[in-house]
Write a structure and sequence with these properties.
Layout (H helix, E strand, L loop, with lengths): L18 H10 L1 E5 L4 E3 L7 E7 L2 E6 L5 E7 L4 E2 L13 E4 L3 E7 H10 L1 H27 L2 H16 L1 E2 L5 E4 L4 H8 L3 H13 L3 E4 L2 E4 L2 H6 L4
Antiparallel strand pairs: 1-8, 2-7, 3-6, 3-8, 4-5, 4-7, 9-10, 10-12, 11-12
């Protein structure tokens, strides 16, 4: 599959670039396709590359002192990662592994940093995206610290439906979630049994249905209503 400069236009930070800028970006990028289960980088390895996802899903996680895996994010098409650490010599703070076959663009971080220095507009867009991601993480952490387990599960369902979902009508949203209930639970600090109970409750009251990795939110407004304002 041949890389074209139009691949980059789906990413917000590149949408205002000229065709010449896009061609320059194309010159320093490498198009890659990885199969499911491929580790892109590991926690504590030297930070070398910025990735831009064209299709597929990637799991990002940390390993704590006891060797337990903590899933911190599920990344998908149109996202860049890692989101932090530009102009630093720090290593990767997490591990990234593909959950499905993944098509992405890889840019050496040194080359990307030079491009940001040359293109102030792109640098500003990148900083805005980093700030938005930071605020999103902070808000999510605050919510998780103050809410019970039911509302934590609902928050993640709403987030995944919003980011990954295909609307069927004004109430229904369908999406594929390529993680296990245990990984879902790890993301929000609850047990797998808790996730199962909440899923079964929402299924019983006909707000959602699910089959393996396929989830149909039957009544998205009702699901959102649990989160209040």
């Amino acid at each position: 599959m041949l890389q074209t400069s139009t691949n980059f236009k789906q990413f917000p930070i590149f949408q205002k670039l000229t065709e010449d800028d896009l061609l320059r970006l194309q010159e320093i990028s490498i198009e890659r396709i990885y199969t499911e289960g491929t580790t892109l980088f590991r926690q504590a390895e030297p930070r070398k590359t910025i990735y831009f996802i064209l299709s597929g899903f990637i799991k990002v996680y940390k390993v704590d002192a006891e060797g337990q895996e903590l899933v911190t994010n599920i990344l998908h098409a149109n996202e860049m990662f890692p989101h932090f650490g530009f102009f630093e010599q720090s290593p990767y703070t997490e591990t990234a592994v593909t959950l499905t076959d993944v098509h992405l663009l890889a840019v050496p971080i040194k080359e990307f940093e030079l491009l940001l220095l040359e293109k102030p507009g792109m640098a500003i867009q990148t900083m805005q995206i980093m700030e938005e991601k930071f605020l999103e993480i902070q808000e999510q952490l605050q919510f998780m610290q103050t809410q019970d387990v039911f509302h934590r599960v609902v928050l993640m369902l709403v987030r995944f439906a919003t980011e990954l979902g295909e609307r069927k009508d004004e109430r229904q949203i369908f999406f594929i979630l390529p993680i296990t209930n245990l990984e879902f639970a790890n993301m929000i600090g609850v047990s797998r049994e808790t996730v199962n109970r909440v899923f079964n409750h929402l299924k019983k009251i006909e707000i959602m249905s699910y089959n393996r990795k396929q989830i149909l939110i039957k009544d998205f407004p009702s699901l959102q209503s649990y989160l209040g304002d």
